[in-house]
Specification:
CATH superfamily of the largest domain: L,D-transpeptidase catalytic domain-like
Strand order of the largest sheet: 1-2-3-11-9-8-4-12
Number of domains: 3
CATH architecture of the largest domain: Beta Barrel
Structural class: alpha+beta
CATH class of the largest domain: Mainly Beta
Length: about 525
């Protein structure tokens, strides 16, 4: 962490005013106009509204420097904005009005860049997730800068820090967590715990019990003072419960035992946790402003969890299954759920038909296809009387893509008894599954890319209630109605859904959660932040 004394010394040295004395200011407007005309039209219009006058004097530069310093608390270090280079330019004025005009315009661009980074992200989500659509921003960086410039220069930083950051509680808690973990790091972090040959749990000895308990207290899993004075040499129940708390926060089956994976997570250095918080704070800035306050669904792929929010409250949370790492990764993007199907058909994607179903079926087409309720059809959406004979020739055509395979409706259908549709070019949707046992696993990356929902009846009820005339009983009845396969219900209004990838986040009880970077998305983010 940078020394405040050093920063304040830099700020104190900013005595240069870009508003030049009258003799040297003659014609500076034309130099500013020339500079902004080479930039984008927004900057030119912004300066044009100010008659191309200089914006930055010594007091405003001090306010900007203070603002940049405070951004470090949000995970945006001064080095990301080349602060030292700008400080040198500000403190060494030139007698050349053209050079001073360039500095004024460049300073404005720096301020806009920093404001944009705090409001909407230092990084661009499309650089990492090409399917992510740009989110409309009602308040521009220019508008935030205008608001700050209206006030006394001494209030410049305060105004921006109050107005610019995202408004959601999880963002504030993540920023507080970053401060807390930095303090842990400043105090030396935590010592490495020894790995044992056999997992240790309640009643078992552990060679470094004092160190283990200190480690669990460091992040709040073991309340302060708990078990601190015990003379027992075995893991007691309070310590085991603290291990379970730690395991839950790290996506590990919470059994209270120090297995290899739990010890590996306990021994991850504080620097890694700090880096995770920094990049995931930025991921939060990608979201719509007041994100929590609007009605929406959120699927955190890294956590394999679905949440519904409305009016700032978490309505529900449930386990989900996401795409297999390295093979069928669930993409990061957002859309709008428009409708659902009860007892849906599964239109088998051609790639799955070609690589999985056809090779397995060719040895005994009739038996294999009947066992799994597969049909061969000329096109998706074909009627029941349009199915084609299950023969090797037609299977080969399905593998080639000239025919198609679907699975009929029922409890054994791969989509289960309900699927939720939000149009997208990845053919990804939310759906039920016949394999509910998989939801009990801590690691839940088993799908071909779609998101399997553990409580689809509850989700359908929440979405259909807005239509009127639906409750949980009628939802369950529709799921069991064998007379109405592939029944479509359109929602009275769409529901935004965000498939996001947060490897650290804030749980509803305020604790920090860290999840494995199952798809390896963190590496490039860390690189962009110089971490």
């Amino acid at each position: 962490m940078r020394s405040n004394i050093k920063i304040q010394a830099l700020i104190a040295g900013i005595t240069f005013s870009l508003s030049q004395p009258e003799a040297s200011a003659q014609g500076i407007e034309q130099y500013i106009k020339s500079n902004v005309s080479a930039a984008d039209s927004s900057l030119s219009n912004w300066y044009g509204a100010r008659d191309f006058q200089t914006v930055w004097n010594g007091e405003r530069l001090m306010g900007l420097a203070q603002f940049l310093q405070e951004l470090d608390k949000h995970g945006l270090s001064l080095s990301l904005f080349n602060f030292n280079e700008w400080d040198a330019r500000w403190r060494q004025p030139s007698s050349d009005p053209a050079e001073n005009a360039a500095t004024d315009v460049g300073t404005t661009q720096l301020a806009l860049y920093a404001i944009q980074a705090l409001a909407y992200g230092f990084t661009d989500p499309t650089d990492f997730h090409p399917k992510w659509k740009a989110i409309s921003r009602k308040v521009s960086a220019y508008a935030f800068l205008d608001e700050a410039l209206k006030h006394d220069p001494s209030q410049f930083s305060t105004i921006l820090l109050d107005k610019v950051p995202p408004e959601d509680s999880r963002y504030d808690e993540m920023v507080k967590s970053l401060t807390r973990y930095r303090e842990i790091a400043r105090l030396g972090g935590w010592r490495k715990l020894p790995v044992t040959a056999v997992a240790s749990g309640p009643g078992d000895p552990y060679p470094e019990l004092k160190l283990l308990r200190a480690r669990l207290r460091a992040e709040g899993d073991l309340p302060g003072g708990s078990s601190a004075k015990t003379r027992r040499r075995e893991i007691d129940q309070r310590t085991a419960d603290a291990i379970k708390s730690f395991q839950f926060r790290h996506g590990i089956e919470p059994d209270g035992y120090l297995g290899q994976r739990t010890l590996a997570e306990l021994n991850i250095p504080t620097s890694d946790r700090l880096n995770s918080l920094i990049i995931n704070i930025d991921r939060l800035r990608w979201m719509p402003r007041a994100y929590e306050k609007s009605e929406h669904l959120e699927v955190n792929i890294a956590e394999s969890a679905l949440r519904m929010f409305d009016k700032g409250k978490q309505i529900t949370v449930m386990p989900v299954i996401v795409g297999v790492k390295g093979k069928h990764q669930t993409p990061v993007f957002h859309g709008d759920i428009e409708h659902l199907f009860f007892r849906p058909y599964w239109n088998v994607p051609p790639s799955i038909a070609r690589t999985e179903i056809v090779p397995a079926a060719l040895s005994d087409p009739t038996a294999y296809m009947a066992k799994h309720n597969y049909e061969i059809i000329p096109f998706y959406g074909a009627a029941a009387n349009q199915t084609l004979p299950v023969i090797s020739a037609n299977l080969n055509k399905a593998a080639a893509g000239s025919l198609y395979i679907r699975q009929t409706a029922g409890p054994d259908n791969s989509l289960g008894l309900v699927k939720f549709i939000f149009p997208n070019d990845s053919s990804v949707y939310l759906h039920d599954t016949p394999d509910h046992d998989l939801f009990t696993r801590a690691d839940r990356d088993f799908s071909h890319g779609c998101v399997r929902v553990s409580r689809p009846d509850e989700l359908a009820d929440l979405l259909l209630k807005r239509n009127g005339g639906w409750d949980i009983d009628s939802v369950r009845a529709a799921m069991q109605d064998t007379n109405s396969p592939n029944r479509k219900e359109i929602f009275s209004r769409t529901m935004p859904v965000y498939l996001i990838y947060w490897t650290s986040t804030i749980m509803v009880d305020g604790r920090v959660r860290f999840d494995e970077d199952i798809y390896g998305h963190d590496a490039l983010m860390l690189q962009r932040f110089g971490l």
